Amino acid sequence: MTAPLAFDLVLCLLLIGVGLAAVLARDLFAAIVLFIVYGLFVAIGWVRLDAVDVALAEAAIGAGLSGVLLLRAAGLLGQRSEAPAQPPHKRHFGSALPCAAIAAVLALLSLLLPDTIAGLRGPVGENLAATGVGNSVTAVLLDFRGYDTLLETVVLFAALVGVWSLTPDQLWGGRPGLKEHARIDGVLTSFGRLLPPVGLMIGVYLVWIGADAPGGAFQAGTVLASVWMLAIMAGLVDAPPVSRLRLRLAVAVGPLLFLAVASAGLFTGGFLVIPAAQAKTIILAIEAALTLSIAVTLALLVMGRPRRPA
Amino acid sequence: MSWGLDMGSAVDAATIALLAAGIVFFVAGTVGLLRFPDVHSRLHALTKADNLGLGFITVALLLQAPDAWKAVKMLFVWLLTMLAAATVAQLFARSALVARPPQDRRP
User: Which of A15, A160, A278, B56 is least crowded, fewest Cβ atoms below 10 Å from its Cβ?
Assistant: First the structure.
């Protein structure tokens, strides 16, 4: 057995094992931690499949951000401690059956796939020059299939509107989350001073390099969001009131610029058609605006609804 | 047999030895995490794995780095990991102290 094959087999077994453990875990907290571990193993799997872009996104969003969101949700649920209405096995059977059916169909379909598929690598490579960017993933995400990315950013926007809509009337426009109490010159505060400059540099690097190599708005946005969250948790800055105009502009600028470019295409070639001559500039501008919006939106999603007055 | 090949295999041997040393620390850290009785001794075991195990593995990979730029990136990742691990370990230790002061712990 060759070393790469052995590694892949161990990775597959770990993926299945951790996935099962996450689904079957009794304790909510344990299930979430196992889900985060599962996300990290999936990221390694994407690296093995030579899909570094997907691996970066999975590690940052799938494991990192989703993990934090789930932990926060579990923390809020834990404060209520309501007993489930139905016995656990009865509740789970109803969802386990369709899940098993879907898994079986997916497994069958993957086994029926032909061994070699031409895929879209060829056509994308041939037309890459017209987009002005060197990374085929970025070209697909922002040019060839721009509507996917546009709709994703709108989904994020809608999610934030959904979270904010849970705000009680008297707190509307207030600051999200609770006031952080970190000791001045404590370990967390020092860390919060040291890491953000490095994180900012990595975030900007990720979105800049995304034009020509693995990287891009979502990965960079997640890094920047975590840097901001760290500064807030370390007590160095306070969470902004959601009524602040600059904050709302930052949330909206990415989807708005993307929509504007997409609509401007209607006059030249069609919805979402980006003129080839300025493609690189336009794509980088959209990526930069999206990075800001994604960073701010993700951080605000983690902070949750407003909990104290501005 | 060329001198270059011997040099290469010597570097490979050093890489394997350093990786093995790194794995020993990670195994020790994991055994400590599973077997030690309380949060602080578990943290003690884990931080050994983070600092020394990851250090050995980084040095092993540095020997295989294709160019100086990649080597600098690896060192950077190692430094950041140590910084984050040390901070998180402090926070865990403090919150464990607050949750259950030492004198209240079972012997």
Answer: A278
CB atoms within 10 A of CB A170: 9
Integer Cα distance of A227 and B42 in angstroms = 28
The verdict on a CB contact (< 8 Å) between A194 and B83 is yes
Quick: pLDDT tens for B59-95.
999 999 999 999 999 999 999 999 998 899 998 898 8
Question: B84 vs chain A: nearest CA distance in angstroms?
Answer: 8
Q: How much is the pTM? A: 0.84
Instruction: Report yes or no: B41 at the A interface, CB cutoff 8 Å.
Output: no
Which of A68, A188, A226 is most worth mutating to test chain B (most B CB atoms within 10 A of its CB)? A188
Which residues in chain B touch residue A40, judged by CB atoms under 8 angstroms apart?
Answer: none
A44-63 per-position pLDDT tens digit:
999 999 888 889 889 988 88
Q: Go through B4-19 and write b for each residue having 16 or more CB atoms within 10 A of its CB, e for each that does not.
A: eeeeeeeeeeebeebb
CA dihedral of A82, A88, A91, A93, whole degrees rounded to 10: 160
A191·B80 Cβ contact <8 A: no
